[in-house]
Amino acid sequence: MDENTDNKSCPSCHSEIAMGDERTSHHSEKTIRDLVNRMNRIEGQVRGVKGMIERHVYCDDVLNQIASVQSALNGVSKLLLEKHMKSCVREQLQEGDEEVIDEVLKTIFKMMK
């Protein structure tokens, strides 16, 4: 790390991160495992949809499977947003970082598109 780089301490893990570098989450191993398991299932669903298209499966059936994938992704997003609000955001607010509110609102607006 460059000596002139501004550093900021992560509020949860108390590790030092360089400003502008990627931040990391600090969720429990159970949460990470749950999110990864869900994403693995979704990955399988997406491969299944691709196979359906390759096999010329009836469009309505493919569209229903795509809707299922979107719903599963929304579920992952909701879980991650909940964990983010209850940990990262709470801690940043407690430290007086009010900018996190704008960051979360921007993310939620993107999710609502």
From TrEMBL:
PANTHER family: COPPER-SENSING TRANSCRIPTIONAL REPRESSOR RICR (PTHR33677:SF3), TRANSCRIPTIONAL REPRESSOR FRMR-RELATED (PTHR33677). Pfam families: Trns_repr_metal. GO terms for biological process: negative regulation of DNA-templated transcription. One of its GO terms (molecular function) is DNA binding. Residues 1-29 are annotated as: Disordered. This is Copper-sensing transcriptional repressor CsoR. Residues 20-29 have a biased composition (Basic and acidic residues).
